[in-house]
Every structure is written in structure tokens, then in C-alpha cells.
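One such given next:

>
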Amino acid sequence: MPQQRLKIAYLSDFSPLDRNFYSGGNARIHDALVRHAGDVTILPQTWGLADPVRRAILALPDRFSLRLRWRAQLALAPVIACSIAAALRRDRYDVLFGAYAFQTLHHLRRPYPLTVAYTSDATPTVYRRSEIGQAFSEVLPGGRRLDGWVERAEALVLRGSDMLLWPSAWLRDATLQRYDLDPDKVHLVPWGANIAPPPVPQPRSVGPGAPLHLLLVGRNWQAKGGPVALATLHRLRKAGLDARLTVIGCSPPEAQGDPHVTIHPQLDKSVPAEAALFQQLYARSHFVVQPSYESYGFAFCEASAHGVPSLCLRVGGVPVRDGVNGFALPPGSGAEAFAARIQATVADPAGYAALCRSTRAEYDQHLNWDAWGARVGDLLRDAVARRSA
């Protein structure tokens, strides 16, 4: 029996049709809902009568626009919510699905009964108060003075939603504790890799004298833990391993000219030749080494898709389970700890091969968008059915 196709209104601060925003996550969430949940209508991202403010903010440099935009949208929510409610009244939806931007739901009054669901990899307060937020300096002057106001708005939005779909146990546990939420409406559903499913990887050999390929993927060398990854490379080479590091997405000055580092400043996965190279680089890699501070990390899902174990820090909601698809080291771990973990793993070729297999299995079972879409589709249909009963 075919499953019910829900009518879903999709709400975010940027269109999911632009695959560049939110590292492609916004687009993947939208697409998974279309495949597994129902017919999706993207609501306008304009701010109604306040839209001149939105356009002025978008004209600022990204460094400031990123942080000012959502705060301004939150402050103007009583005005913006009127235009969102008007868009909802143009049809009759089963679900209002919010992604990434909690502020779009603030002050919104439902024009008729519908299920409100929301997903993101963090809330501003959980992020700022975690080791992730503490690792970065304040960009917007006086931004922290607004923390109390922001947290009160978050609590209203999250408590007022019918369903919260968090990709990590870290965010689930933090929001349950911080906002006193009903546990029955909080669900852990991991996000997936923002790539097409790659073929099942061929076995990679490890052993004395064989090249050992490390990979780091990201636009911000510092934020992704690049200096630690580079220092890890040097430690491994001093220990006698033929280690090499490939960097995709940035061009770090300190790695320029290093004969054991290959740099690809940018690979556009929409270009077939560059997408093929991207896949080849993953296919030959033995480890993703990315000691970054982030709330999730799509790169770790992509590594799992290629059967490449990830080495990262146990911060935020990184989708890495120890001994399953890699190892998450304690916060503050440096090159010595990462190098030691790699040496211990490659010293056991059979164990490494098993780790690669379980890494791919983690992608097949959990870290892909079809798994997310199927689970969320079921949850939404159940919620709509309960509301209609």
C-alpha cells in the first residue's frame, strides 16, 4: 500500500534550491523530504514589510552578514511572521518544516492546525556555550549581550514545535537539559553525506613501506584543524611511515612547498572531472584527519561513504563512533595523540580492514539521506495522523 504523501511547507532563511548554503545540507534535507515524505512547497525567504533590511544586510561582507542577519530576523520576527502566515494561508498544508533557522518560526501563529517540525545541527545558545563556540572569537561587537534574549526566543520556538529532529546525541541531550523539552517530541535522526552514493570501496592495504594517505577537507584550514593534521603528518614521517597529506578546499600557506602535501584549493563536485577526482582522492585515502571544532561535520559522513575511517575530536555532534567509523579523541588532543592512534591502527592490518568495512556500513545504515528521509517521513506521517484522529 503506497504511503501517504504529505503536503509540506518548507521554511528556511535561504532557498534549498541553492546547494551552496549550509554546506549543501539545506538542499539535501529538502530533497529527502520530497523523496520520502511528500509534496514540498518552498516558502518565500523574504521578510515582508521588513525586506529592505534583509537586502541591506545581505549586501554586507559575509563575515558580518552571517551573524547580523539572523539576529535582525529574530528582532523583526513579529513583522516577518505575518508574511509567512500569509504564505501558509495560500494552501492547506499538513506540515510546516523548518530547517536551520529557528528565528523563522519565532512569533509565527499557525493559521490552521498543522504539524510543525524543525531540524538543525545546533541552536545559537548550545553552540556558543559549548567548547565549539568558546574556540572562536566574537565577530559581531556586543553580540554576547543578546544571549539571554536569544535563548528565551529559542525556548519559545522549540517548546512550541511538535517535532524536533536532531542529527546528534550531543544536540539532543543539550536541548533536553537546557530548554526543558518534552522528550517525546525530540528525535535523534543522523544527517547524511552530501554526495551521491559512491561505489563500495576496494580494500586498502596498510603496512611497512606502503604509502599512508591522510585527507583533510574544508574551506577553513584553521577551523578544520589543519595545523594539527600537518603536524601529525610530520610525526608519522619521523616515525618511518610513508605518510602523505591531501588537502581539499583551501590553500594553507604553511603547507605550500611541502613535498608530502598535495593541495587542491577547490574541487567543484558539479563538474564531472572534478567530482571524479574528488572520489579518487577519497578512494585512495586511509584516514580523514580533521581535528575540527564543529557542531556536526558532513565531511565525516562523506568519509564513511567511501569507507575511510575518520580521526577527529570528541566535540559537538561529530558523527564518528569509536571503533565503528573512526576515532574521536579528547578535546585538546594534538599531533602526538593523532599520530599514535594512526600507528596503532595500521599496526593491525586485519583490524584496519574491519574498521573500513564497519565505516562503510555506518554510512549504509545511518549516515545517508535516504535513511534520514525514510525515518523522518514515518515520524511526520504518524504526527499528522495523531493530530487528525
Observations:
- The chain has 14 helices and twelve strands.
- The chain has a mean pLDDT of 94.
- The domain at 6-192+368-388 is CATH 3.40.50.2000 (Rossmann fold).
- The longest helix spans residues 369-388.
